[in-house]
Amino acid sequence: MKKSPLIKTVAAILMITLASACATPYFGKTYTATQNVDVYLDAKDVKKTYEVMGTSDVDQGFSSLDKLQQKVIELGKTKGADGVIMKLDEEVTGSTKNDFGTVGTGKKNNTYSGSSITTNTKVKKVKATFIKYR
After folding, report:
1. Which of 4, 40, 56, 94 could link 121 by a cystine bridge, Cβ 3.0 to 4.6 Å?
2. Is 79 exposed, middle or buried, given 0-12, 13-18 or 19+ CB atoms closer than 10 A?
3. How is 7-37 classified by DSSP, letter by letter?
4. Residue 29: burial class (beta carbons within 10 Å; 0-12, 13-18, 19+)
5. Is 43:107 a contact under the CB 8 Å cutoff?
């Protein structure tokens, strides 16, 4: 049974889409791959002279911050980084407002007593700066 060209094309597009969904965006220089990447949480902690070789912002597709951190470290290894400076941010992507209250009936007037709660939807995001020691 022959596979139609349409099925082959759809399968190829699906594979490319899945591969790119797992890819971590990187902007910068690439060097020979390294085996070890030092992790820093602040640029002041880096005691060696270095140059910034690239950056990446990662915010989706990970079930935990540990897995996200490991993905950033692996990206650093493949790009040839000696270290990575990671910063955790939370970005508000939306909010929901819930209003509630009660109506009281009096002899002369009805009164309303109420309030509202606003809940922000936040996304955790890691900003990674990859460095190369001099």
Report:
1. 94
2. buried
3. HHHHHHHHHHHHHHHHPPP-EE---S--S--
4. middle
5. no
Tokens, residue 99: 């209003």
Q: Where are the beta strands (DSSP E) in the chain?
A: 27-28, 38-40, 50-58, 83-105, 110-133
Contacts of 121 (CB under 8 A, 6+ apart): 92, 93, 94, 95, 96
Q: Which value, to the nearest 10 degrees, does the dihedral of the CA atoms of residues 122, 24, 31, 47 take?
A: 20
Tell me the per-residue pLDDT of 62-95, one tens digit each, with 9 for 90 and over.
678 888 899 999 999 999 999 999 998 877 778 8
